[in-house]
Predict the 3D structure of the following.
Amino acid sequence: MEPLEPLRIRLRRVYEAALDDEGLRVLVDRVWPRGLSRERVGADHWWKDAGPSAELRRWFGHERERWPEFKERYFRELDALPEVVARLLEVASSGPLTLLYSARDTEYNQAVALAEYLSDSRRPRRPAPAPGPCSQGASAPAVVAGDAGEPNR
């Protein structure tokens, strides 16, 4: 089995100027960014169905202590939308994909979580470990910084 080419996923706030090499720019917010025109955002597509539900967005409220639970809930929402995930993976597999978002927080937002989900969705899924004394208190593996984990600056 040949190793998969890494996805070229970039993250950018809609308030930042676009770069020439960003590939397809997709806005992944459910709500249009306040005060911005379509020209200013510069998105090739607005796939609002790729963003978290309104209920989940309100619950999260960009409170960093809720980040792990937010990601779990958002990933479950994405699991229920295979056509959306397939569309994003198809784009990311064929060239650069820039996920646009409007959140102020560049580290804890839906685009960061979505990029992680897309990268992980190409790996074979392993069943969750059975609860037991060894699995309690274990920390999650670290995410290596790269295009998918850090916004362009």
Observations:
- The chain has five helices and four strands.
